[in-house]
Structure formats: structure tokens, C-alpha cells
Amino acid sequence: MRRRFILFFILFSLFFLLAACGEKPDIPPTAVGENGIPIASEFQGFYQEYGGREILGEPVTEMFSTISGERPLQYFQNVRLEYDTVDGVLVSQLGAWELGGLNEQVLAPVSEDGNTRSFPNSEFTVQDEFLRFYEGQFGDVLLGLPISPQLNVDGLRVQYFENGRLEWHPEASTNRRVQLSDLGQTHFDNEMVFTYQEAHPAQPVSSAGVTDVDVSAYVKAPILYADEDQILYMTVLTPGGAPVSNIMVDVMVSYDNETQTVRSAPTDDLGQVMLPLNFVIPPGKDVVLRLTALDSTGSSLGETVLTYKTWW
Question: What is the rounded distance in angstroms from the CA atom of residue 121 to the CA atom of residue 105?
Fold first, then answer.
């Protein structure tokens, strides 16, 4: 009987030991976006707690300061975060900024008996699916108070809040029908991109982990005359403006019914690469260049199109 008990104890211990070994380790909070831009340590805890990339989006910039002594900040696709040494992480009021630029407010119809919440310091209410998102995604912190009723803007039902804007997408899956607008990206592109480039010169980013890039290009000769050599100049950047190295670009050259494809060398630390186009193309042709930036597996990261003309 004692031997059976010992054997049972050993088997029981082994079972729990194996079960523990099979458990997945805790995944540490991400410190780098899928586009290769690091999330500042000051914002990592807030980013994870309030929805990460699904709610706040990918980082658009690294942390920087616009003027010496001002709060350091970091742009994400849907928000801008600021760091205060006393109050901690604050969400910038990009909803108020966006609403201020709206030329006309077109009211969207709402139900009269929907689930509605009013706010002591606002004349506006939040209702139905927008309210569900607001209360389920820490709206008091991320969005602040409502500053508009539900509106129709550019074919979308939206509602503005101090810090952001909610959009209604009925065609999306159930958990994605209410989404934050990408006001972080919009404000950065319209108000801050050049300031950021001056204050924070872009450092090269390795292609590893990058999932989205912007491809820009131009040709040496927009009109290519006979006996001239055509050269294509390309630059590959992250959406935040950092150059991406070790990216190859497929260039599809088309005119009439003819198509040829050539692949560039990898981009350098400035995200740039030059490609001679040694094709014999008859004069009087409109040549279309379709550029596709590729990762190491050959998957597309970004595309662009440009044209030039051959002449006599």
C-alpha cells in the first residue's frame, strides 16, 4: 500500500510539472511598434493599459519635445500622448482641434429611447454603441468629455470628444464597428511633421519588424530623349519618416502591352537606392513604373506609381 501511495504521489507531481512546463510565459509589453518605431518607456504602461495598437494605433513618432521645457510627447495613429512629471501621461485634445476645423455640422439622426449618458460639464450626451465603447474603453481618460452631438462627416457617423473622435462602421465586425479616428496621424501630418524632423532627425530603421512603409521616387529624365540613360531614385521611409534600410524594390516597367520587371539593390541607411533602367523603349511612349517595396519574405510593404515619357 505504501509503494502504491509513493508511486501515485510521483505520477501526480509529474503531471503538474508537465502542465506547468506547457504553460505559455507571460508576453512582455511591446516596446516597439510593428513599424519599427519604439514606444517611449514613459508611455509603455499607459499604452498597454488603454488598448495598445488596437485602440491607440501604431506609434507615428518617437518621443520628442517641440520647445525646450515643454512636455515631451509621442504621436500614435489615433492619439497624441504627453508626459508631465507631476500628472504623468496626458492625452492631447486633438478632438477639439479637429472639430475646430469643421466647416459645417450636419446632425445625424439618433433614437429617442436609446441608452444615453449625460455629463455634468457638457451639454452633449453619449448614446448607444458610442456609449458602449466609451464606457468599455476608458473613455473618460482617452476621450474626455463629449463636445458635439452625433454628426455626419464625409459619409461617416461620428461624435467628437475633447481628445478624439469616434466613428461608426456598420460594415465592420461586431467589435470593430466603433473606432477611434486617426487624429494622431492627421494632426502630425498637418501640424507637426516638419517640426518633428527638425527636432528629431530620423535614424535609420532596420527592415526587420517593419510592416508598412512609404515609397517615394523620381526619375532622372521625366522626358527621356534618344541615347539618354534613365535612372530611378527611390526612398523608403516608415510612416513616421524614419529611413528603412535593407529594403528591396520591385519595379514593373509598362508601356503599351509590354511589361518588364527589375529588382533593386537593398536600400542604404538613408532608405535610398538608385536603379538604372536599361530598357530599350521606343520613342513616343508613356512609361508607367509601379514600385513595390518588399520585406525579406517577398511580401509587399508599400507601393507607389510614377510615369515618364520617351521622346525622339
Answer: 21
Which cell numbers hold the place of 91? 492625452
Q: Give the span between the Cα atoms of 4 and 1, in whole angstroms.
A: 5
Whether residues 194 and 217 share a domain: the answer is no
Residues forming beta bridges with residue 215, ordered by sequence position: 236
Which tens digits make up the pLDDT trace of 174-226?
889 999 999 999 999 888 887 887 766 666 777 777 888 999 999 999 999 98
Residues 192, 240: one domain? no
The cell numbers describing 181, all together, are 479616428
Q: Are residue 190 and residue 221 in the same domain, yes or no? A: no
Question: Apex CA 54: angle with CA 49 and CA 60, to 5°?
Answer: 95
In a domain, 23, yes or no: no
Rounded Cα–Cα distance for residues 72 and 89 (Å): 10
Same domain, yes or no: 46 and 161: yes
Q: 167: which residues sit within 8 A by CB, 6+ positions away?
A: 156, 157, 158, 178, 179, 180, 181
Angstrom CA distances, 6 to 10, 98, 108, 131, 290, stand at 6, 71, 73, 59, 72
Q: How far, in Å, CA of 12 to CA of 299, rounded?
A: 48
Give the range of the structural domain holding residue 294, as residue numbers without chain letter. 205-310
Q: b/e map of 71-110 (b: 16 or more CB within 10 Å)?
A: ebbbbbbbbbbbbeeeeebbbbbbbbbbbeeeeeeeeeee
Q: Among 199, 232, 249, identify where a domain stops.
A: 199
- 54, pLDDT greater than 60: yes
Highest mean pLDDT among 8-22, 25-39, 183-197 belongs to: 183-197
φ/ψ of 304, rounded to 5, equals -155, 165
**Which of 138, 173, 199 is the endpoint of a domain?**
199
The sign one gets for the Cα dihedral 63, 64, 70, 73 is negative
Query: Any idea what the CATH number is for the domain that residue 267 is in?
Result: 2.60.40.1940
Strands of the sheet containing 214-219, edge to edge, are: 214-219, 230-237, 272-277
